[in-house]
Design goal:
The protein is an alpha/beta fold. Helices cover 43% and strands 16% of the residues.
């Protein structure tokens, strides 16, 4: 087996700064995929970028909550009305992406809310219906980050445990779909060059996705705590890093492209 890598930018379509970062990282960096938020103000502009650059694979970044994923999760568990409208909302966002002229390469979710046990099976059903080949299921990052300075915190371990449990619970719903291991959850918004180089040196055989939240907005620069949006110019710099590109090439890692 070979080591293969999918590199994705989330929040495409959120702001002009995110769109500009996606385009720059695709043209000049290692970015090859982006996840588009169809409900955001810059969605149509993002779709135009996608159509002008067909080598950029674009999927749906499903939005079911703006924040507070735990609260949203409880609502889908206990509110029968919310559950009844769930599949229709997912379908409407897929259709909106298609109407923008984009054929989705994958589906994932804002704040990873799509991994919720009520939501993920619906996402997978519709992915199969619309012939969308790949869904995101964060997994395996905890073992990879061990030893990275400052990364092994109680909060990180808890987050890894929660998503590991949910992944085990819902994974069977993704039959017939591509579900690569996905890293980025545990350092979301602070995917700095040194951490990404650490992950690349520990990349296992098979396919792994790394996801980022780049922007050109210089006001958003990652420290040790992510911005509220998790977007940062630091993550754009990581995607543009010659050291990251060299690590992929020297590590004989296949960078997966949409076309």
């Amino acid at each position: 087996m070979t080591r293969r890598l999918i590199i994705t930018a989330d929040d495409f379509g959120d702001t002009p700064g995110v769109n500009a970062a996606v385009l720059k990282a695709y043209r000049e960096g290692v970015l090859r995929f982006a996840s588009l938020m169809v409900l955001r103000p810059a969605a149509a502009a993002a779709a135009e970028i996608a159509k002008e650059h067909p080598g950029l694979g674009v999927g749906l970044h499903l939005e079911l909550c703006a924040g507070a994923p735990g609260k949203a999760g409880l609502r889908y568990f206990f509110d029968s009305k919310a559950r009844a409208g769930l599949e229709g909302e997912i379908r409407s966002q897929i259709e909106a992406l298609l109407k923008l002229g984009v054929t989705p390469t994958h589906i994932d979710g804002h704040i990873n809310v799509h991994v919720h046990p009520v939501i993920f099976p619906a996402v997978c059903r519709l992915a199969r219906e619309y012939s969308i080949p790949r869904v995101r299921l964060p997994s395996g990052e905890w073992e990879a980050l061990k030893g990275f300075p400052g990364a092994e915190t109680a909060g990180t371990a808890f987050l890894a445990g929660v998503f590991g449990t949910m992944g085990s619970w819902v994974g069977c719903a993704a039959a017939e779909l591509d579900v690569p291991r996905t890293w980025g959850l545990l350092r979301s918004g602070i995917m700095k060059e040194d951490y990404v180089l650490w992950l690349l040196s520990r990349l296992p055989e098979g396919t792994t996705e790394l996801y980022f939240h780049p922007t050109t907005d210089e006001r958003l620069r990652a420290t040790d705590v992510p911005s509220p949006s998790h977007q940062s110019v630091t993550e754009l710099e990581t995607l543009m890093s010659p050291r990251v590109r060299r690590a992929i090439e020297d590590g004989d890692i296949e960078l997966i492209k949409a076309r």
